[in-house]
Amino acid sequence: MNNGRITELLDKYWACETSISEEMELQEFFRSGNVPEELQPYVTLFTYRRDLQALKPGDGFEERLVGSIRKAERQNRYITIRIFEPLLRIAASVLLVTGIGISVYLFSRQNSQVFAETYNDPEAAMQQATLALDKLSRAIQATEEASLKSLEQLDNLELDWSEIDSLSTEIVPIDPDFNKDVKPGRL
Q1: Are 187 and 70 in contact (CB under 8 A)?
Q2: Burial class (CB in 10 A: 0-12, 13-18, 19+), 26
Q3: What's the pTM value of the predicted model, to 2 decimals?
């Protein structure tokens, strides 16, 4: 093919006046390898399709793609909660304090006797308070002993906590309708 014809086709190409067959002719010329020095800058423009078609994804590409898509979906699900989390904490605290305040107010108005003096004898009041505190102390001691016994039993199990923690981070929820061929352990 002569350089005059190629130059003429390039001029038509830049003016957006070429037909599909003329563009194919340009692509074939630039793929041939016999391109003059002055037309070398245009080689990549007309050979890009062939170069892109030669690219193939590597092994495991589809599994990595599915895994990253699922990870992005999980992160996007909870983004609104993360944005409003500080405001939700403040709102919950205000609601809790307001609820307790209203409850105490209504309770005190209904039962004014609750906050009244119930014992005329200070000795009897001291005896009842001591009895209540003693019961509370025994209950706390029993709870503490049960907690210590549970911790000792856990220590005797000789668990590897790092493996247990890593198991909780590797669990991937599987959508049965998404892809039946994907196995959860391979993501």
Answers
A1: yes
A2: buried
A3: 0.30
- H helices present in 3-77, as ranges: 3-14, 20-31, 43-53, 61-77
- CA–CA distance, 36 with 56 (Å, rounded to integer): 31
Q: How far is Cα 177 from Cα 80, in angstroms, rounded to an integer? A: 26
d(CA 150, CA 142): 12
Residues 8-67 have pLDDT tens digits of: 888 898 899 989 898 888 888 888 878 888 888 888 887 777 777 667 777 888 888 888
* 134 vs 140: CA distance, rounded Å: 10
Contact between 46 and 27 (Cβ < 8 Å): yes
CB-based contacts of 6: which residues, under 8 Å, 6+ apart? 26, 29, 39
Domain-wise residue ranges, the chain: 3-53, 62-186
Residue 29 buriedness (CB in 10 A; 0-12 / 13-18 / 19+): buried
Position of tokens 């198991």?
167
Contacts of 114 (CB under 8 A, 6+ apart): 107, 108
